[in-house]
Each structure stands twice: as structure tokens, then as C-alpha cells.
């Protein structure tokens, strides 16, 4: 047996003894795995809820459909955003939006590209001449607990 293998065997034995000591002194809580799975699921719940509140109206078609309009609503239970997407004469999109909270920053992201808009006192904002692509709105909103980020799920314009 080489010196390298002997060192490896000795290290493995040392780590096994160390693990046994820690399991006796500070065992893993029995419900740790369940709590971690629940914490990860709750973290993604807000995004899923925002996706589930997508507004579908009768006769509403996709942006690339016959009417070239789309209305979307996203909410995380605290902040709600309403978007109205229309086609422009140039073939791009105009996105009019309204947020029900105090938005300090409004951004539209498409991959590495990003556009900014200001939300007026009424919460209204707009993006003009946006190319068709998968997009996401990111807001920095002020609420009773301070400042936080609100992100919509991705949607196609």
C-alpha cells in the first residue's frame, strides 16, 4: 500500500469518527428535511401565485394573434401589476402598466436587455417600441416593511 493510500484511509477513518461524534453531540433534527422542502416550496409559491393570477378574458388572443392585444395581471398577495400590451405600427410592442403600490423603480427585462420606466403618482408606467420576446417586469416597491423586489414570471410579448 502506498503512502498516499494510507493517508487517504487514515483521513477517511478520522472523518468517520468525527461524524459519529457530531451525530451524538448535535444530531440532525428529525424534521429538518421536511422543513427545508417546505421552505423551498414557499419561496417559489409567490412566483407560482403570480403566474396563476394571469388574467384571461373572453375573446382575448395572444399578442401575435388577430387583435394584437394582451392583458396580464400579476400579484404576490401584496403588490398587483396590470399590463396591457398592444402592437405598434413598427411591429414592436407598447406595454402600459399599472402597479397598486409605491414603485421606486420599474424595469422590463428581455434576456440581457433592460428598459426602465417611471411609475407616476397613480402607479402608471409605459414602455414603447419593445421587441417581441420573452419578458419579465421587475419592480422595486416600498411597503410597510421597507423596500422589496417584485418580479413577474416570464411572459411573451
Can you put this structure into words, describing what you see?
It contains 2 helices and 9 strands. It is α+β, with helices and mostly antiparallel strands and 157 residues long. Strands 4, 5, 7, 8 and 9 form a 5-stranded antiparallel β-sheet that branches. It has a 4-stranded antiparallel β-sheet with strand order 1-2-3-6. The longest helix has 23 residues, at 3-25. The relative contact order is 0.13. Mean pLDDT is 83; it is low at 54-65.
β content, as a range? 35-45%
Number of strands: 9
Q: Residue ranges: pLDDT <50 for 5 or more in a row?
A: 54-65
Principal-axes geometry comes out as elongated
Report how far the terminal alpha carbons are from each other.
Answer: 65 Å
Query: Can you summarize the main beta sheet?
Result: 5 strands, antiparallel
From N to C, what is the helix and strand string? HHEEEEEEEEE
Overall pLDDT confidence = 83
- Rg result: 25 Å
The protein's oligomeric status is single chain
Topology of helices and strands:
Elements: H1 3-25, H2 32-52, E1 69-75, E2 80-87, E3 93-99, E4 102-110, E5 113-117, E6 124-130, E7 134-143, E8 146-151, E9 155-156
Antiparallel strand pairs: 1-2, 2-3, 3-6, 4-5, 4-7, 7-8, 7-9
